[in-house]
Amino acid sequence: xxxxxxxxxxxxxxxxxxxxxxxxxxxxxxxxxHRRRGGNATNSLVVLSQLxxxxxxxxxxxxxxxxxxxxxxxxxxxxxxxxxxxxxxxKMPTSYISLSAKTGSRSIxxxxxxxxxxxxxxxxxxxxxxxxxxxEGRNVDDTLKMLQWLKQQHPHLPCSLxxxxxxxxxxxxxxxxxxxxxxxxYASHLGYNNATNFLTELKLPSATVAACAWxxxxxxxxxxxxxxxxxxxxxxxxxxxxLGAGDTFNAGFIHAILQHQPLESALHSANQLAAKKCSQVxxxxxxxxxxxxxxxxxxxxxLPEQGFREFKIQTEQGELALxxxxxxxxxxxxxxxxxxxxxxxxxxxxxxxxxxxxxxxxSTHGALFTLxxxxxxAGPCVDQSLMTLDLEWREDRLWLSLPLNFSL
Length: 408
Description:
This protein folds into two domains: about 5-290, 3-Layer(aba) Sandwich (UDP-N-acetylmuramoyl-L-alanine:D-glutamate ligase), CATH 3.40.1190; about 300-405, Rieske Iron-sulfur Protein, CATH 2.102.10.10. About 20% of the residues lie in helices and about 30% in strands. The protein has helices at about 40-50, 65-75, 120-125, 140-155, 185-190, 195-200, 245-260, 265-280; strands spanning about 5, 10-20, 30-40, 55-60, 60, 80, 85, 95-100, 105-110, 130-135, 160-165, 180, 210-215, 220, 230, 290-300, 305-315, 320-325, 330-335, 360, 370, 375-380, 390-395, 395-405. It has a nine-stranded mixed β-sheet with strand order 6-4-1-10-11-12-13-14-15, with helices on both faces. Strands 16-24-23-19-18-17 form a six-stranded antiparallel β-sheet, with helices on one face. The chain is elongated.
């Protein structure tokens, strides 16, 4: 897994759960109150840590009681804070949140009176062992200097930028990251009512990937060639807490990119994770509730009418080699691993047929497997079978589903 540094803020969130939002100039009683750590960058790091990454946070902390709440939570999730700046005076930023039990949505009032993490602070960080840097889109002038310095001193170190809110001159940052994660709020502020038009008209360098989550409409991404991709939002039986769903989506997307997943698969994985966040309160045990890994394979048009196509994908456990068997309108996925010696079945790309095209054949020792079940009928592994893998068609797109405990 990767070593990830995030630059941004941590907050104290005071969350009042109410049955429904109060009318203006009225009173309502909170059924529950929580006091916990918040902040976009640290939220994303907590999720990334649960996904198995080594995470570091660079931000500003104050020598006061609320800091203990933040550090206790970050320590619990194994977030390294030694890159932070500590101040003797000041107050940690505080967010006052009204959370609707009826809809799961929230309204937030922020209070902030604290210096931002500075470019001078950032220059002191040892980045020699870092694999990815993530920035909150705030403190525009200093963040611009950080991005420029990063590209000059570490040109091959990838970085991402979150754009949640409109800020003066924030567009100056767009030319430098490898990945920009936009919010619906930012796009809506510019007058867009959908992510498609926003990403299509967005002016970015050709090497930059952009993504934008649009709540119930799903999420979109624009690849380096300018092609738009879309993933539907996950269906939820109930919404418990949308606070931090965007930060969770960002973490899931970064994780998928680091795993070299195709963009469409990255969108789907990030949507799944964000949906799970909305279905629970807080971030604890978020990833443990995930039951499968989903990987986009190809479009229907990319498969042969009759024959095979092989793939290699990055999973949580490492690289998985597999192939799709297309026979008389049926598609079956097999792990490309002979039960005899555990080696790939084929010598040439996409070549798995026996000479008569009636069976799958291992090129090394000639074992024959049935096309429909992968059952060995002849050869050194007779009566054993190829491992079948679960496929799912979503419209004209083929996805592979793997359990989290899948073993290569």
